[in-house]
Design a protein that fits this description.
Elements: H1 2-15, E1 23-26, E2 33-36, H2 38-45, H3 51-58, H4 60-69, H5 78-92, H6 97-115, H7 119-122, H8 147-163
Antiparallel strand pairs: 1-2
C-alpha cells in the first residue's frame, strides 16, 4: 500500500514540479486569495498543447490542491520536500530501475513512519480464539419491553412538545446558482 502511494507521490512531484513559482497571492479581498497561473505553468514546461495536464489543472482536485498548498507559511511535508529537493534525483533514476525501486521503498518507509510514529503501539496482538469457540451460541435473549414505561415516555414527550415554542427551520445560506443565460429560453 505504502509503495503504491510512494509511486504516486513521485509521479505528482514530477508532474507539478515548479508549481509554486506560478502561485499568485491576491490581496484585494479581506482574506487573501491564492491563484494559480495555468498558462505560465504550461508555458514554462512547454506543455501548452498537453490535453491531459490541462484537464488536470482545470479540475476541482487541483483547485483544492492549490488552496491547501498555496499558502506560503504552513508546515511542510514529504511532498513539499520531494518537489523542492528530490526532482533531480527522480530524473536521474529514470534509467535505473533498481535505484528507482530503492527510492520508492525509502518513500514508503517514510510514509509508514509518518502514519505510525510509535510502531509498537500500532500493532496489537489479537488473541487466537479457543478451540470449539465457534460452536458455542452467544445469543442473549432480547429483553421484554415494559409497556407502562413506554407509555410514560410518550406522554412526557407530548407534554414537552406542547409547551415548547414552534420549531423554526434555520435556512442555510448559500450561493444561488446563476442558471442558464436568458437567451436560451
Amino acid at each position: 500500500d505504502k509503495e503504491v502511494r510512494a509511486i504516486f507521490l513521485r509521479l505528482f512531484a514530477q508532474l507539478f514540479q515548479g508549481y509554486r513559482s506560478c502561485l499568485q497571492l491576491i490581496r484585494i479581498h479581506a482574506e487573501p486569495v491564492i491563484h494559480f497561473h495555468k498558462a505560465a505553468f504550461l508555458g514554462q514546461r512547454g506543455l501548452i498543447e498537453n490535453d491531459f495536464l490541462t484537464k488536470v489543472l482545470n479540475g476541482m482536485a487541483f483547485a483544492g490542491f492549490v488552496s491547501e498548498r498555496g499558502p506560503p507559511f504552513r508546515t511542510c511535508d514529504l511532498f513539499d520536500e520531494l518537489v523542492a529537493f528530490e526532482v533531480e534525483r527522480i530524473k536521474a533514476e529514470e534509467g535505473n530501475p533498481p535505484k528507482m525501486i530503492k527510492h520508492v521503498r525509502e518513500l514508503a518507509e517514510q510514509l509508514f513512519k509518518n502514519e505510525n510514529p510509535n510502531p509498537h503501539i500500532a500493532f496489537q496482538k489479537v488473541p487466537r480464539p479457543t478451540e470449539g469457540s465457534h460452536l458455542r451460541v452467544h445469543i442473549l435473549p432480547f429483553p421484554r419491553i415494559n409497556e407502562g414505561r413506554v407509555q410514560e415516555l410518550l406522554q412526557e414527550g407530548l407534554a414537552r412538545s406542547q409547551g415548547a415554542p414552534p420549531a423554526t427551520r434555520g435556512d442555510k445560506k448559500c450561493v444561488v446558482p446563476a442558471g442558464p443565460p436568458v437567451g436560451t429560453f
